[in-house]
């Protein structure tokens, strides 16, 4: 009988290069008895944790293929328990599939938010994973409350506890007259803009910091450590733990950076819901007070406020100066240090990994020291929890029957082309080639035509963007008049200028066709949009769309995409226009991967039309799929004009003169 293993499902290698890896090693040591299954490789495969290491890059695989690959990977292995620490969509899919394949008890431990404030994983995946989990854990009280509220499933707390209680190193800082205040900082700055804000704050306030750890190595930070020294930042790198603790005790306080929770906060998910493990580390090793840099309503700010072991300061000079005074006032400092010493014992737990397994067996948390910590019991649920929208079920956007009245929402059923759409075209009597012979952009042209007729039943004047007339031109009903730029190359070079080239009618004698309108009832394309690739060109074509389409007019654009095991590709204009015109709830890559009826150009058609230009065999190139993007032109926004408003107001007050009738002529 083969040995039974515990399966750890994570995004990347479990090692000391990132916080999740460090904490997992704190929980389970070197991970004996674990098989590790990761979704990506970020550290060259360096993974000292566990007995065996597997990788499945399933980011662009559909769920059926992912299940099949997992079944093969785990063949011959007995899985007794599963611990999933999800980050990307892949880990959610892997855990659900492995639970289904093995039936082993599953614990899901949420350490990062990828749904509530960072909407990177769809609601239905999170809901399904939590539903299939025998125990759900979260890293902070705020994260537990947010996910419990949104998904209706209890998520229990397991903070990033320490392995064991240590003797605290006393803070021995003493003020020196005439010297600027110098504090330690430990932690990461997650964005370049936040770092620039920190640099200015330090320059303006005169505060100096020594930055410990690997945070300064982040690739997104501008300039160099040498340049930062002029902003009062000195980088001291990574120290062995004992040396680090001894050094930290020499400062008046330790800064832990967090977020501002305002319009400038570019990582709300981290600020709201992540409890940095370094906070518990600091409270368990030295009684030096803590300054959380950011809003007091961040998870980190709420932690030190509850324990009264430090303060929070906003990224504002006036607030920081007040908090510096607080942190250097002897009476207050002594009180904070006493509070750290009182709190430390509840923030460590020996054999925390075994606590997870015992709780999993009981399907609920067993008693733990942190359950009695004021950090997690003394403050209630934040008010903003109640404003979180409950999870929405997955909308499959079924294709509307031909007899059903077509609604704008039905356009979403064609966001990615389904195999059944080809039959829809043939059932409509359109002269479409066989499904295994049709080239992808030909199919997209017919899809556009079908949708155009259904979404524009009253007809109208449309602009078709392509250097060649559409295949369906002869099929156009008389109620639709189609125009196209007379010289599309010159039009492109002009930056899509409104009057650069005339818009000529297609399929009608020029003398018999009405003149091109100032604004069209619809602007459509099938494949052409992928030629718009630069930021400037995308901005220019968006401006043209807005200027030359009537209010509530239709925009309908189809374009090819490629779904490969290693990537998903379509032209950048597809994503840009979706954001630019705020197209809400449009199906995304997750919907494509879930689609059981996804259309892909056949190998026969690929070899006939595409292989000569790509130079790759069908299996290597990936699936050539079809996408569409559709929206209605929103009404133009009116700009408030004070002078005009005043004139209207004055006109409303003035009496309206009544014209005298001319005398009648007898």
Question: Could you describe the 3D structure shown?
Answer:
This protein has 25 helices and 20 strands. Mean pLDDT is 92; it is low at 648-666. The longest helix is centred in the C-terminal third of the chain and has 16 residues, at 440-455. Helix 3 runs parallel beside helix 4 (123-132), helix 6 (192-205) packs across helix 12 (317-327) and helix 10 (277-285) crosses helix 13 (330-344). It is of the alpha/beta class. It has a seven-stranded parallel sheet with strand order 3-2-1-4-5-6-7, sandwiched between helices. Strands 14, 15, 16, 17, 18, 19 and 20 form a seven-stranded mixed sheet that branches. Strands 10-9-8-11-12-13 form a six-stranded parallel sheet, sandwiched between helices. 35% of the residues lie in helices and 17% in strands.
């Amino acid at each position: 009988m083969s040995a039974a293993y515990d399966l750890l499902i994570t995004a990347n290698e479990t090692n000391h290069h990132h916080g999740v890896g460090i904490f997992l090693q704190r929980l389970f040591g070197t991970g004996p008895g674990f098989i590790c299954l990761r979704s990506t490789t970020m550290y060259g495969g360096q993974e000292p944790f566990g007995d065996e290491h597997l990788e499945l890059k399933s980011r662009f695989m559909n769920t059926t293929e992912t299940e099949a690959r997992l079944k093969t990977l785990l063949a011959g292995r007995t899985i007794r328990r599963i611990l999933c620490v999800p980050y990307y969509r892949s880990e959610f899919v892997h855990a659900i599939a492995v639970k289904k394949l093995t039936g082993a008890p599953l614990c899901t431990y949420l350490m990062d938010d990828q749904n509530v404030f960072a909407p990177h994983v769809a609601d239905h995946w999170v809901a399904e994973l939590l539903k299939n989990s025998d125990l759900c854990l979260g890293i902070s009280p705020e994260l537990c409350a947010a996910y419990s509220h949104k998904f209706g499933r209890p998520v229990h707390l397991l903070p990033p506890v320490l392995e064991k209680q240590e003797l605290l190193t006393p803070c021995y800082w003493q003020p020196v007259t005439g010297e600027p205040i110098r504090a330690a900082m430990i932690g990461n700055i997650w964005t370049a803009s936040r770092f620039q804000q920190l640099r200015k704050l330090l320059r303006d306030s005169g505060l100096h910091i020594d930055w410990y750890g690997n945070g300064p190595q982040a690739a997104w930070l501008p300039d160099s450590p040498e340049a930062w020294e002029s902003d009062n930042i000195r980088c001291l790198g990574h120290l062995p733990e004992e040396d680090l603790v001894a050094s930290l005790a020499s400062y008046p306080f330790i800064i832990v950076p967090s977020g501002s929770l305002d319009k400038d906060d570019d990582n709300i998910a981290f600020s709201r819901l992540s409890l940095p493990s370094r906070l518990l580390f600091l409270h368990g090793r030295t009684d030096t007070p803590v300054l959380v840099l950011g809003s007091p309503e961040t998870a980190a700010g709420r932690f030190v406020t509850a324990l009264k072991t430090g303060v929070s300061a906003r990224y504002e000079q006036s607030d920081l100066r007040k908090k510096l005074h607080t942190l250097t006032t002897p009476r207050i400092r002594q009180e904070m240090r006493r509070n750290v010493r009182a709190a430390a014992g509840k923030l460590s737990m020996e054999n925390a990994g075994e606590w997870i397994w015992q709780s999993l067996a009981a399907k609920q948390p067993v008693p733990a020291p942190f359950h009695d910590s004021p950090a997690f019991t003394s403050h209630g649920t934040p008010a903003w929890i109640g404003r979180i929208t409950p999870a929405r079920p997955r909308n499959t956007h079924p294709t509307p029957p031909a007899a059903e009245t077509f609604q704008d929402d039905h356009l979403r059923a064609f966001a990615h082309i389904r195999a059944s759409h080809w039959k829809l075209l043939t059932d409509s009597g359109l002269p479409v080639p066989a499904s295994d012979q049709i080239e992808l952009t030909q199919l997209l042209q017919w899809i556009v035509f079908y949708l155009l007729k259904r979404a524009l039943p009253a007809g109208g004047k449309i602009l078709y963007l392509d250097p060649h007339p559409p295949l369906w031109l002869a099929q156009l009903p008389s109620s639709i008049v189609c125009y196209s730029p007379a010289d599309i190359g010159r039009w492109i070079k002009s930056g899509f200028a409104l009057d650069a080239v005339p818009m000529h009618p297609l399929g009608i004698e020029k003398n018999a066709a009405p003149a091109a309108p100032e604004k069209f009832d619809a602007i459509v394309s099938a494949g052409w949009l992928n030629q718009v690739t630069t930021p400037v060109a995308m901005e220019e074509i968006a401006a043209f769309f807005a200027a030359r389409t009537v209010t509530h007019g239709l925009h309908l654009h189809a374009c090819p995409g490629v779904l490969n095991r290693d990537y998903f590709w379509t032209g950048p204009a597809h994503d840009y226009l979706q954001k630019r015109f705020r197209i809400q709830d449009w199906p995304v890559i997750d919907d494509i991967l879930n689609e059981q009826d996804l259309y892909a150009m056949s190998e026969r058609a690929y070899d006939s039309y595409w292989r000569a230009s790509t130079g790759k065999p069908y299996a290597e190139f990936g699936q050539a799929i079809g996408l569409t993007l559709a929206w209605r032109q929103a009404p133009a926004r009116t700009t408030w004009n004070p002078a005009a408003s005043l004139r209207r107001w004055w006109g409303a007050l003035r009496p309206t003169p009544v014209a005298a009738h001319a005398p009648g002529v007898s």
